[in-house]
Amino acid sequence: MLFRHVYQGEHLIQLPLPNVLIIMALIYALLGGISGWVFIAKRFQAHRNFTELTQRIKTFWVIVIVLSFSLFMSTRLAIVFWAMVSYLALKEYFTIIPTRAVDRRILFWAYLSIPLQYYWIATNWYGMFIIFIPVYVFLFMPLRMVILGDTRGFLRSVGTLHWGVMMMVYCMSYLAALYMLTPNNNPQAGVQGLILYLLFLNQFNDAAQFFWGKKFGKHKIIPSVSPNKTIEGFVGGIITTSILAVLLAPYLTPVNFYHAIFLGILIAVAGFIGDVTMSALKRDLCLKDTGQLLPGHGGILDRIDSLLFTTPLYFHFIHYFYY
Amino acid sequence: MNKLLRYLFFLVLVRPVVLLLLGVNVHHRHRLPQQGPAIIIANHNSHLDTLILMNLFPYRLLPFLRPVAAADYFLRNRFLAWFSKHIIGIIPITRSRSTQNVDPLKEISQALLQKEIVIFYPEGTRGEPEQLAQFKSGIAHLASRHPDIPIFPVFLYGAGKALPKGEALLVPFVIDIQIGNPLSWSGDKHQFIEILEHVFADFADKVKQQDF
């Protein structure tokens, strides 16, 4: 098995390796720089409205600080942390989608799948982690629905609930699974390096696509789903994310030059797909945001949409080539 | 002792359940009263409603919060009566009309005179999940007696899905809370009820609803 003997000699809170700390410091400097720039721009461009941007950056600070904490946590604590993120995401999803009154019981089981899924990860049971949701949960939920006996809206219900568990529990749990990879294969940065690499590139790509789209965007890429997304933004995002992926790879990951390029493209493309998929969901439900948990961003789904798509792909790529 | 238990109950149980287990989206929180006397009126679909409404206020106001609740339901056994009166702090109200000579609103009036914040459900009882029922006349009587006390309409959405009437299983949903501008007595009972129902119908339109 790929996983390691964890927990021995681990403290609840511990320092990640120096490489991780250095990159984290750079991220804080970057965010500090952006905050400073907005602060100055506010003074000189009094006619522009900065409230949304300020709110967004403020929330970004909270996100970065909380995520930094997750890199200082022991493996078990970090797994609990990501289980809670899963819970918040699943709750938000169940709140915005239409559900049937009879399905309250199914929703309850769906919530229960979270502690189980993360428990398999924490106990090193890779085989169970990988099949629990797509085999057992996906077979059990319709069975329970059949026992409840209401066939009106049955198919829609099965579809929506399965997709929610797949995204918010299964895909999200891959982030917790990254903590279980043996650190020996990445001696210079450990699992925290791998996780920081993914989280940073993923969020950076979101910002880069937004920036390039805003600056040079002309040709709409998928106007019926997301009218603000452009080909220029998409391509610009892929290029900048790949460059950053290559630059950061030697410090944070064991991947070589060509694999780093591939990972940059993978994260950019998968992140884009995650983003527009959640946009399609919101459009279908006639919503602007999925919630209000993160002021300036919307709900938690608005923030992790791209991460849900990149994490499993990233995990399996790293797992296949380096573990 | 009961006072301490009340604080503990809200600190250890209510706050984590409302904020972590369920989660709330509050619109216009600043409109809430900072002190009593005040009347909070809300739609009623779930036992969670009272806890969610009380949790909107800071701890310093906890001793002033008095939800109005049905005596026949909440005082039906000794433990529940103790819990309702001393931990939740309810003002029991008799729903039956047989007691002709007793003033059912007397205790509420007293509470308002003591600068307390009264939580009142104009629908009278918990309705079907997320359906607004017709308002009873009780709120109009109360308002006409205290024309200078502000009435704050609060609309809750989601609690009826999380814990509907007659269900024991709590299933988490995020609760949407709309707080309106304070209203005051209009001078006419029918007109006043109409105004309130209109305010709540507007709230219901504003929330993106995903009913069962």
Brief summary:
The complex is a heterodimer of chains A (323) and B (212). Chain A has 323 residues and is an all-alpha fold. Chain A contains 10 helices and no strands.
- Counting DSSP E segments of at least 2 residues, the number of strands of chain A comes to 0
Secondary-structure-based class of chain A equals: mainly alpha
CATH structural class of chain B:
Alpha Beta
CATH architecture classification of chain B = 3-Layer(aba) Sandwich
- Overall mean pLDDT of chain B stands at 90
β-sheet strand percentage of chain B: 15-25%
Question: Low-confidence parts of chain B, pLDDT < 50 over ≥5 residues?
Answer: none
**Radius of gyration of chain A, Cα only, in angstroms?**
20 Å
Kindly report the name of the CATH homologous superfamily of chain B: Glycerol-3-phosphate (1)-acyltransferase
Q: Which strand order does the major sheet of chain B show? A: 1-7-6-2-5-3-4
> Can you write the helix and strand succession of chain B as a string?
HEEHEHHEHEHEHEH
Question: Strand-residue fraction of chain A?
Answer: under 5%
| Count of discrete alpha- or pi-helical segments spanning 4 or more residues of chain B | 8
The unreliable regions of chain A are none
User: How many structural domains are formed by the residues of chain B?
Assistant: 1
